[in-house]
Amino acid sequence: MLNLFLDIDPPTIFNAHNNFQTLTTYIIGALLAGFGILFALLKAPPQTRRGIVFFVTFISGFFYVLLFIWPSPINRSKGDAPINGFDNVGFWLADAQPVVSTMTQIIGGFLIGLGIFSLMRIHLKRIVKGGGDAPFSFTLVLSMILMIIFGFWDFHQRQQPGAGPLLDNQANWGFVNYAKDYLFDGMLQEMEAAMFSIIAFYILSAAYRAFRVRSIEATILLTTALIVILSLMSVVEYQWGEMVNSVAGGNKNSFVQNFTLTNVAGWIRASVQQPSIRGIDFGVGIGLLAMSLRIWLSLERAGE
Amino acid sequence: MKYELWKTGSSVLATFGLYSVLYRENKFYRFFEHIFLGLAAGWTLVVIWVEIEKDQWWGKMLGANNDAGTSMVQSGYWLYAFLVPIGVMGYFVFSKKHNWISKIPIGIVLGLYAGQQFQAWLQRYGPQISTSLKPILPTTFTSITVPDNPVPGEVYFTQALTNAISLFTLLSVVAYFLFSFNENNKLLNRLSTSGRWLLMIGFGAIFGTTVTMRFTLLIDRMHFVWIDFVRDMLLRR
Amino acid sequence: MSIGEKLQSLPKWILFLCLIVTASVLQFFNIPLPNKPQDPAIDYYAFAMSIPPGSTVLVSSDWTNSTHGESGPQFDALMRILMRRNIKFAVYTTADGQAPQVAKDEIRRLNEQRVKDGERPYRPFEDYVMVGYFPSAEGENLAMSINLRSAFAGKKDFPEGAKEPVDIWQSPVLKDIKDISDVKALFLISASNTDQIIIERLAAKVPLVYAVTGISAPQNFNYYSSGQLKGLVGGLKGIYDLEYLMTSGVNHPGADGKIAVASTRVPGDVPPLPGRNQGLGTAYFPTLHAALALMILAIIIGNVGMFMARKAQGASK
What whole-number distance in Å separates Cα of residue C242 and Cα of residue C272? Predict the structure, then answer.
């Protein structure tokens, strides 16, 4: 059924209704049916709930598992038709995937709104309650409302006939565009940069206080970190190379040339560091795969 | 210029407001922190409509989008209306009684994510595994180290040694991950211990690059304050 | 309190002040540094320079100002290469809702700079398109690998002088693209985990060229060495290398006849890029040296303090 979303010719019951009135009727019908299902779910007996969630999760995951294991059409061009039922499934899966992806984006969009809703709820409660935190919550809600107003208003202006490319030039900006630019570029982006840069201070402080040569592991960690840091300082790298070169008497084929920082750091990176990080990556990957399997089969009980 | 000065000036003020937490948490910091959170949340809401729902959902449902690459207006796909109740189900997370319903849209998204992981794993790690498997025995002893003009296909002693060290590191680290619980096998235990040490080399590298990244972000902020604002805007006015 | 203990307990404000001073002072000076670009950056530059003018590439712009220090100059350098070589590009993001606006603002600034420098402005819709944001990185990148036209369906952008936004597939950037294999490369500027998501879904379909933050550079180095990436720029060192290469080229004799960067990995002469090449990477690199030196010094002081304190404790026992 999903690939019917892609067809516009011949028209089907799913897409034929360019006529606004008919389309609206169908949309209202779909909404009513959808909310009807939601209402029915509210009445679902407790013992069936786990099964419903399992079914939905399994079917969703199964689509991609099937897409992976089912042979897909090779070098398919427009107008190609499936030659048998087996082929038909391959065509269907390939056609349905972008639709499934779009639906994921849409549902994902709705779910992102969940976070905003939750934030709003907490801070509105705080404002109503009053107390020491209320002014801060008010600041948050006000900033949010201002950003929503000017964000949408700026977008709306850019959608007006002929306005889009004109507003790319600052000379054509009006109050709304300046306000949106100030809030987004002047405040949000710069504050984000400031927030993330604060960590540098804590890293320095933590390294000074905790980076001690107390055990074999700590010594290895410290030595590797220092070699990596030094290899990223091109002045040190260059001077070290010059020193090694003078020891080698300028002979490029001398064995001593293996001990330039570039070569030492390069060897450590290629022979130990990279396989080690690859090992970490494999470990995480295996864990992720196991976790995915548990999620797909609803074996993950976290939060229940 | 006046607008730029005002905009950059207040950005610098906000930066110092946020940096004031380095002294200790204070009202000045909390004020800017809440502005930041509010703006970020507000922008997310704008993006949800402008970048996602408007074209991907509303446009497709009402047939407002052009078909890809043509000027033909698509028909409306009314079935997209079904996604509204599914999205609404997510908001039942706030209901004590019907909390479980929110697991349906979350289950759909997680299920779709989990289903992709099997193929994704193979594509990501397949080439990594084959790259890791290099010859560990030398095929020639004409030179111990790799000469300036190596014979193609030949494996020299130092090359084989490096490959062996790489493979040993990889196996040790993976063994540490997979057999970190108490195992009676002595070989596995030793492999796992050496894995822990070799893991430190990986973490050391990650630490080194993390430090450079964080310092770069701070340098960028200082550039914004001293060069972009103080030097270029205030002193050169 | 012994000297050892004192060395171990410097107040944090002294450390913070030292860091602020170190991260600020050198920025007022232009200090040229010797450099030996690393192989991944050489491959990045050589690959970008090998793309034929007029062809189309994808740019996954997955960063915001939170990592501006690294991702900003990476994005600028890539844009300079693509714009000067007249390579068309489509910008999309699967990481952050703020990213499309950040990319738009950055392109606007670069265009203003180009006009000042006497170069033609890069035109929206004709030379590049903004595809926008997709919240499901996994689904979208997989959809792109299966059917690029469907994956970007419904997205619109403004041609110059147009009254209404037009479907991006009608733009000269994308109109000849049938699927992902028609795209010459996918350039990623990432400060999130989209580096892995894209490798998992698109590595077999299109050449991938990455610019990532320092924190994810070690992991991506593995993907580079296994051939899954055609080139890699990691962190500030990577961007300094790239800006250096844009100025010197690879295996390219300079005005004095000397080759500044020689590499056996790259066949032939890869010329430098004419025009303004040195950006924030070059500006920040000397300061990074000072900040890292401070870090090393702080670690040494802490450890010396620890040994002195231990020695003093041993002597008192």
Answer: 11
Helices (H), B48-138: 60-62, 83-90, 103-132
User: What average pLDDT does range A199-215 have in this prediction?
Assistant: 92
Instruction: Say how far apart CA C305 and CA A234 lie, in whole Å.
Output: 29
Whether residues C284 and B206 touch (CB distance < 8 A) is answered with: no
Statement to judge: residues C316 and C197 lie in one domain: no
Name the token pair of B10: 């207040």
| Closest chain C residue by Cα to residue B43 | C98
Residues in Cβ contact with C241 at an 8 Å cutoff, skipping those fewer than 6 apart: C35, C37, C38, C41, C42, C233
Structural domain including C265 reads 36-278
According to DSSP, residue B97 is labeled: S
- Count of structural domains, chain C: 2
Answer for the pair C185, C206: CB distance below 8 angstroms, yes or no. Answer: yes
Residue C34 has pLDDT above 80, yes or no: yes
Name which of C152, C140, C146, C149 is nearest C205 in CA terms. C146
| Residue-wise pLDDT tens digits, A37-65 | 999 999 999 999 999 999 999 999 999 99
- The number of residues making up chain C comes to 317
> What's phi and psi for C166, nearest 5 deg?
-120, 150
Residues comprising chain A, all counted? 304
What is the residue whose two structure tokens read 């080139």? C231
Q: Which residues in chain B are contacts of A49 at CB distance < 8 A?
A: 100
pLDDT tens, B108-167? 998 998 888 888 888 889 888 888 888 999 998 888 878 777 888 889 998 899 999 999
Alpha helices in A43-84 (DSSP H): 46-69
Residues C296, C72, B224: CA angle, nearest 5 degrees: 70
Distance CA A279, CA A281 (A): 5
**Domains in chain A: boundaries:** 1-43, 53-129, 134-197, 211-296
From CA A145, how far away is CA A158, in angstroms rounded?
A: 20
pLDDT score of A14: 57
How much of chain A exceeds pLDDT 70, in percent? 91
Mean pLDDT calculated for residue range C150-178: 85
ipTM of the prediction greater than 0.90, yes or no = yes
Query: How much is the average pLDDT of A172-200?
Result: 94
Q: How far apart are CA A246 and CA A260, in angstroms?
A: 11
Which residues of chain C have a CB within 8 Å of the CB of B124?
A: 196, 199-200, 203
Query: For residue B178, what is the nearest residue in chain A, using CA coordinates?
Result: A283
How far apart, in whole angstroms, are the C-alpha atoms of residue C172 and residue C164? 17
Judge whether C285 is closer than 8 Å to chain A, CB to CB.
yes
Nearest residue to C63 (alpha-carbon basis) of C98, C110, C91: C98
Residue contact A100–C294, C-beta within 8 A: no
